[in-house]
Design goal:
Elements lengths: L2 H7 L2 H8 L5 E5 L5 H15 L7 E5 L2 H15 L7 E4 H11 L11 E2 L2 H13 L10 E2 L2 E2 L2 H13 L4 H25 L6 H18 L17 H19 L3 H10 E3 L5 E3 H25 L2 E2 L3 H12 L1 H10 L2 E4 L7 H10 L9 E5 L14 H9 L4 E5 L1 E2 L4 H11 L6 H4 L8 E2 L16 H17 L14 H13 L16 H17 L3 H12 L8 H13 L4 H6 L5 H7 L1
Parallel strand pairs: 1-11, 1-12, 2-3, 2-10, 4-9, 10-11, 13-14
Antiparallel strand pairs: 5-6, 7-8
Helix pairs in contact: 2-3, 3-4, 5-13, 6-7, 6-12, 7-12, 8-9, 8-12, 9-10, 10-11, 13-14, 13-15, 19-20, 21-22
Length: about 575
């Protein structure tokens, strides 16, 4: 189907977005509103209406499948030029920039991606050098307690696009605010919450708001542009709680605020939770900085560096930033609600500060944000509006995927959110209009007496559907967590139902790796005569099915060790069932 035929099929709002070529544009596209077609057609329109070269158009998507779908659709419209357009995920785009401009990255070295095991070893080595008083130096059975948490936190730091120095500026700003307000918090909650507390609480919000309004130089801290000051967030939360308490003539909102934001210190006084968290967070930032430096020294990079390194290079080398801005004359971003702060900061670097109205379009919908676990921030939509000075907004509301009853039910649920764009942008409506056939479409809410009954009920319903002629490939089970899907599998197998279940596994969490890790730690502990550590690991190792010991034999061994006041290894050597295994360990 050629461009003209496709263009004629666009609805009014799609056509308006396709034709709005120059300037900043925010398209709010509800589910099933044809945003992939919009992105493809707008790309084709840019080439049709301007003399822009294909490689000067940058399209950023959130998944590889999204990039593939866009390129395939573009090929149908513009032919082989589709392969010249820069269509990337954010991470593949970062990798492309690193490869093309290697002199700006890793001191020109040919860096390699770090694997999970090396990452684990690097952080473990950093923790080994910490003072024993450091809150992150805690060990259990010879292993650092916070390694996995630190790997997650470091990834979050990078996804926020923040360097260690910027993070320290944020911590300092937070601590300044807390120091100013701590006495007021302690005074307000020193006695039991009552109606009088409401009168004392409201002025605190005003005090913090005044603190937030101070010039950064006055506060001796300067925050990154994308970060909302802690004082602003705190003031807003207190103001909301105080107003709610006044409106309801109830102290419950104040109690809820106290439980969320405060905890007691060693003296029994209420303090802000962020005050007690600051020490551990500061320690984590130190580990983050050492981790980044170690990767650089070894010419290694991790997944998040594919974006963060480009940001740092652009901000350290104005000529690189200028050349990238010159290269990419038109930028389009899909699934913008799922971008994190680092990805947003990258976009800001790709557009010139001297251009009041750069050619950038983002397509997103705050109601469809699904990647918050990866640092995604729907507030980026508001950041985009602020940074580009209220860009043109077009809303796509014609839904071609779902029936009216599904759209209506979904809206009843999603409309309960308080911070949705519909509630923050005057005159904005995202009410979807259904254009799909509603025949056979229904929404049901079913209640079960237990989780087990729910899973069995789902399996039985699926079996009944297939028995009545429904194709298995037309049936999908969606859950919030993988754990829930895994736990429904036995019920499906009981009904002789076979599934196609795809997920990405963390190799370090696989059962075989876990038991090998415990075996290795046991052998090392024995070799170092650290028998208490070995003693703590052996019960779990012997219980693993791979070694074939029965539960009764393990119980007898445990009882034998207890009665004789022996270590497990000693009892195993004296036990005919376990002797050979114990000698193998030795």
């Amino acid at each position: 189907m050629d461009f003209n035929t496709r263009y004629a099929k666009l609805n009014d709002n799609q056509r308006q977005a396709v034709d709005y070529i120059h300037g900043s544009l925010l398209v709010i596209a509800g589910p099933g509103t044809g945003k992939t077609e919009l992105l493809s057609m707008r790309t084709a329109q840019i080439m049709k209406q301007t003399d822009t070269l294909p490689n000067s158009i940058l399209c950023l998507t959130f998944t590889e499948s999204g990039a593939t779908n866009m390129r395939q659709r573009l090929r149908q419209i513009i032919g082989e030029d589709a392969y010249k357009i820069a269509i990337h995920t954010f991470h593949s785009f970062g990798t492309e920039i690193i490869n093309q401009h290697r002199e700006y990255f890793f001191r020109g070295a040919d860096a390699q991606p770090v694997d999970e095991l090396t990452q684990y070893q690097i952080i473990s080595g950093i923790l080994e050098d910490l003072d024993w008083r450091n809150p992150l130096s805690t060990k259990n059975n010879g292993e650092f307690v916070y390694i996995k948490e630190l790997i997650r936190i470091i990834s979050e730091f990078k996804q926020s696009g923040l360097t260690p120095s910027e993070l320290r500026a944020i911590i300092k700003d937070n601590q300044n605010t807390i120091a100013e307000i701590a006495p007021d918090i302690q005074q307000v909650f020193s006695a039991k919450i009552s109606k009088k507390t409401i009168e004392m609480f409201a002025p605190i919000a005003e005090k913090i708001a005044n603190l937030a309004a101070k010039n950064p130089d006055e506060k001796n801290s300067k925050l990154p542009a994308s970060i909302t000051p802690y004082a602003n967030v705190l003031a807003l939360s207190i103001a909301h709680a105080a107003q709610e308490a006044i409106d309801e003539n109830s102290t419950k909102p104040l109690t809820a605020w106290k439980n969320k934001w405060c905890e007691k210190n060693a003296n029994g006084e209420f303090v802000l939770k962020d005050f007690t968290a600051a020490e551990k967070l500061s320690a984590a930032i130190d580990v983050y900085e050492k981790y980044v430096n170690t990767l650089s020294e070894r010419s290694l990079f991790d997944y998040d560096d594919m974006i963060l390194s480009v940001i740092q290079a652009c901000e350290s080398h104005p000529e690189l930033r200028a050349n990238l801005q010159e290269q990419f004359q038109f930028i389009m971003v899909d699934e913008f609600q799922d971008t994190n702060l680092a990805q947003l900061r990258l976009l800001f670097n790709l557009t010139s500060e001297n251009d009041d109205n750069p050619n950038i379009m983002v397509v997103g919908d705050d109601d469809q944000a699904i990647f918050s676990f990866q640092g995604a921030d729907v507030g980026n939509i508001q950041h985009f509006r602020q940074h580009y000075h209220d860009p043109k907004i077009i809303v796509l509301t014609d839904n071609y995927r779902s029936a009216e009853n599904i759209l209506s039910s979904a809206r009843d649920v999603i409309a309960q959110g308080a911070d949705r764009l519909e509630n923050t942008i005057d005159g904005l409506s995202k009410q979807l209009t259904a254009h799909a056939n509603s025949e056979g479409s229904k929404v049901e809410i079913q209640e079960f007496s237990s989780v087990s009954e729910e899973r069995a009920g789902i399996a039985k319903q699926i079996a009944e559907l297939i028995k009545n002629g429904e194709k298995p490939e037309n049936i999908t089970i969606i859950a919030r967590h993988h754990k829930e899907l895994i736990e429904i599998l036995p019920h499906l197998y009981k009904e002789n139902l076979f599934v196609n279940y795809e997920r990405h596994d963390d190799i370090l969490e696989q059962d075989i790796i876990q038991i090998l890790d415990k075996l290795a730690r046991t052998v090392v502990a024995i070799s170092q005569n650290n028998l208490d550590v070995a003693n703590s690991l052996l019960p779990e190792i012997t219980a693993h099915p791979a070694f074939g010991f029965s539960a009764l034999d393990i119980w007898k061994l445990s009882l034998q060790a207890y009665k004789n006041r022996q270590l497990w290894l000693e009892s195993m050597l004296a036990n005919s069932v376990f002797k050979e295994f114990a000698e193998w360990l030795l």
